[in-house]
Design a protein that fits this description.
Blueprint lengths: L4 E5 L3 H13 L4 E6 L11 H5 L13 H6 L2 E5 L3 E5 L4 E4 L4 E3 L2 E4 L3 E3 L3 H4 L11 H11 L4 E6 L2 H12 L3 E6 L11 H13 L3 E2 L5 E8 L2 E6 L3 E4 L1 E5 L2 E3 L15 E3 L10 E3 L4 E5 L4 E6 L1 H15 L14 E3 L2 E5 L6
Helix pairs in contact: 1-8
The structure holds flavin-adenine dinucleotide (FAD).
């Protein structure tokens, strides 16, 4: 039999655990990882520590380039997949290269979500997903003392901890859809704002943002329905949304993420999805759950790879660990202490 060509889209925890499991179970195959990011895989939960100056940028990264060579994995960084042709079984890169595959794992994770009302301001709002974003925070924070966070997801809570360590003045607008897809209710609002206030964060209670104006390079004015605020930098934190838009026209089933069965298989033969980009069927619940968090990603990445290599492992998640909030089923392994 000829050498199998396995392609993995993504270079996060799901992709890397998938690549490792594929190599261990398919020594003769050719494995290629494509990542749109130009840097090696990193530990996202350490980004706030890097911003706080507690660790060096190099400490964010997981494996050396030599590690991929040793595992005979072809790591292609800075190469965005723009589409997949499932009938011809190839992926198409943004520089038009077409790469054939026998088996594919999609592990494209999530990207920061920006609600429509803020999309106009995306160039003046900072988010936090990659080391590149973290570098932007470091640069900005060297020139400003005050930060206004709009939203309020788990990432923003970790970042706020870092900002307080840097003795920045932090104001917080906890927005209605901060914890999307989990709706913000009165109880969560009170718990989160109470904790933030204890730590010295000023909560801005308002229903609506009317206007954002950049007055100077390091000075923004934000008008709410209650007051006008000034800040040096503005952060937008509305959760992560599966980064699967580029697959919308390919015939894959997509709801909040890529719909896969309990074996992480998509509707196409030898095509799997894992990690934050996947929405996984649960036979007992007869419904799909959204995956969130690092540990989930590593476990799903491994299962997808083992099944692609010929096994038949089912994702085991106890129904009671799946939360249902506002009609969305979520299984999260994300830990955050604040
Ligand atoms: C600041 C921050 C702090 C966090 N803290 C925690 C924490 O404390 N605990 C926890 O459990 N989780 C935490 N998370 C979440 C955790 O990092 C994610 O759940 C996890 O990384 C998901 O892994 P993944 O492999 O599914 O996707 P990701 O890690 O998002 O990786 C996706 C990969 O896909 C690539 N990609 C996307 N689209 C394309 C494309 N079209 N072509 C090529 N490549 C593509 C990206 O470049 C990236 O390499 C944090 C996240 C952030 C941003």
């Amino acid at each position: 039999m000829s050498m199998k060509r396995f392609v993995i889209i993504g270079n996060g925890p799901a992709a890397n655990h998938a690549a490792k499991a594929l190599r261990e179970n398919s020594s003769e195959s050719r494995i290629t990882i494509f990542s749109k990011d130009p840097f090696r895989s990193y530990r996202a939960h350490l980004l706030p520590d890097f911003i706080a100056g507690l660790i060096k940028e190099e400490d964010l990264y997981n494996s050396s380039y030599a590690h991929y060579n040793e595992m005979d994995i072809n790591l292609r960084l800075g190469q965005r997949v723009v589409s997949v042709d499932f009938s011809k079984r190839n992926v198409i890169l943004d520089h038009k290269e077409v790469v054939p595959f026998d088996g594919l794992i999609v592990a494209t994770g999530g990207k920061p979500r920006l609600p429509e009302q803020f999309q106009l301001f995306q160039d003046i709002m900072l988010t936090l997903k990659t080391p590149l974003d973290a570098r932007m925070w470091v640069e900005k924070l060297s020139n400003v003392d005050s930060v206004l966070i709009i939203g309020g997801d788990l990432t923003s809570l970790s970042l706020t901890k870092a900002l307080l360590k840097l003795h920045k003045r932090v104001k917080f607008i906890l927005n209605d859809d901060a914890f999307w897809p989990v709706p913000l209710n009165e109880e969560i609002y009170r718990a989160v704002t109470g904790r933030l206030e204890q730590r010295g964060v000023e909560i801005v209670h308002c229903r609506r943002i009317r206007r954002i104006t950049q007055l100077e390079e390091n000075l923004l004015e934000v008008e709410t329905d209650r007051e006008i605020l000034e800040t040096g930098v503005l952060g937008a934190f509305f959760g992560l949304v599966p980064d699967v838009g580029f697959l919308a026209r390919t015939g894959l089933d997509i709801d909040r993420g890529i719909l896969v069965d309990e074996f992480l298989k998509t509707r196409f033969a030898n095509v799997y999805a894992a990690g934050d980009c996947a929405q996984v069927y649960h036979p007992a619940l007869r419904d799909y759950w959204v995956s969130i968090g690092h540990e989930n990603a590593t476990a799903l990445g491994r299962i997808a790879a083992l099944n692609l290599a010929g096994s038949h492992f089912e994702v085991q998640v106890k129904p009671e660990s799946i939360l249902e909030v506002g009609g969305v089923k979520i299984n999260t392994s994300w830990w955050t202490e604040f």
